Design the sequence.
């Protein structure tokens, strides 16, 4: 077996399909987000504006966050020194878990190194707690949820995206006595659409199912204190397990679940993905706790971000660009071809200093390739003007289709 040849063939397939992913070496500048420096392969540099980051609110640059991290590094050093069971539980971790539990109105929360691990570890562990568990999963759930459901060894049912009637049919077809859990998201990040939370909670009540929601793209962003769409819609109390991230709106790193004390205690005790993983560095936990606490009272930052997203959508629609608008903060511009999507991304970066990565299969289905923009409160009018002008020019240059404009 020529292993190197097999590897080369696998990589070449990605090139042939136009979906080989390239790392862009971006160096963020403290206090200057969304501006950064592109360290080019030829050794030169170029200033760029980041339009595809998940630091939705610019909290990764906020002094409240960076000061807390500096203080923790000075007090404790760099790493945590072990798993939570060995030496990796500190006052910083407990403080962060208390802030998260309070954020979601839950008895407890449990930290993980990422929201991906939180989803995977929790969903793969639940059948150990509830033998015979059936998990009903939205077909567009994140890869981490899919992986957790796949690995748990239990029964699974996949319902059509946001199709409550299909979910009802699946629930009704199973043994009424079997333990059940419905797993879905509040905001689906590629299209920016919302899950039907209340309707799913009603079904869960009717069929005696637990509810598990991924609020990764909503925490910090929605609700009067940033508790997500479940807080905004006053439904958090009807959700049994809430998954969230500290790496997007909160601008740091890490993931978590928020639930009852007993649920968190059981996952803590049974999930290998928690038991055998070194905990977050204390400085990261300190920064995340500061960010969560701050955003509980900074509604203005959330409002500015929503305003920026609305302005960008309105201007792109005015040019006839094919965007998806479900009313969330995410702005997907549909291209529909991996080669064209990559070409647009490259030209935006090289000619205009605008950094946005192409979104291709398997992140989205083939034929729905797109550029995904995430405007923030610190993207000003000048940055917005440059982006809209560049997209207008490149759309014409590449002879891509535009929507029919009214009037």
Sequence:
């Amino acid at each position: 077996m020529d292993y190197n040849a097999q590897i080369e063939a696998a990589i070449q397939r990605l090139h042939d399909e136009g979906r080989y992913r390239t790392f862009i070496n971006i160096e963020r500048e403290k206090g200057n987000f969304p501006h950064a420096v592109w360290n080019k392969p030829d050794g030169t540099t170029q200033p760029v504006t980041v339009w595809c980051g998940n630091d939705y609110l610019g909290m990764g640059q906020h002094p409240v966050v960076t000061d807390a991290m500096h203080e923790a590094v000075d007090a404790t050093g760099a790493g945590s020194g072990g798993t939570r069971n060995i030496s990796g539980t500190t006052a910083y971790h407990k403080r962060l878990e208390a802030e998260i539990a309070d954020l979601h109105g839950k008895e407890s929360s449990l930290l993980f190194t990422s929201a991906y691990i939180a989803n995977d570890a929790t969903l793969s562990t639940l059948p150990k707690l509830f033998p015979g568990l059936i998990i009903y999963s939205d077909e567009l759930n994140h890869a981490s949820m899919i992986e957790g459901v796949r690995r748990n060894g239990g029964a699974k049912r996949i319902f059509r995206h946001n199709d409550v009637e299909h979910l009802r049919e699946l629930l009704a077809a199973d043994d009424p006595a079997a333990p059940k859990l419905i797993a879905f998201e509040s905001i689906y990040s590629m299209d920016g659409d919302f899950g039907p939370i209340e309707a799913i909670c009603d079904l869960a009540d009717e069929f005696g199912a637990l509810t598990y929601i991924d609020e990764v793209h909503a925490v910090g962003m929605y609700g009067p204190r940033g508790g997500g769409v479940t807080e905004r819609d006053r439904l958090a109390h009807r959700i049994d397990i809430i998954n969230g991230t500290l790496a997007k709106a909160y601008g740091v790193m890490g993931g978590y679940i928020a639930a009852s004390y007993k649920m968190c205690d059981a996952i803590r005790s049974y999930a290998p993905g928690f038991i055998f993983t070194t905990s977050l560095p204390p400085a990261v936990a300190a920064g995340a706790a500061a960010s969560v606490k701050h955003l509980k009272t900074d509604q203005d930052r959330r409002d500015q971000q929503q305003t920026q997203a609305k302005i960008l959508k309105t201007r792109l629609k005015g040019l006839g660009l094919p965007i998806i608008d479900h009313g969330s903060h995410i702005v997907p511009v549909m291209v529909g071809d991996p080669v064209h999507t990559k070409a647009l991304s490259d030209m935006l970066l090289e000619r205009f200093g605008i950094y946005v990565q192409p979104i291709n299969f398997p992140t989205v289905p083939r034929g729905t390739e797109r550029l995904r923009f995430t405007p923030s409160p610190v993207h000003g009018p000048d940055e917005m003007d440059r982006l809209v002008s560049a997209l207008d020019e490149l759309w014409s240059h590449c002879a891509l289709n535009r929507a029919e404009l009214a009037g």
Remarks:
- The first helix runs from residue 3 to 16.
- The two ends are 64 Å apart (CA to CA).
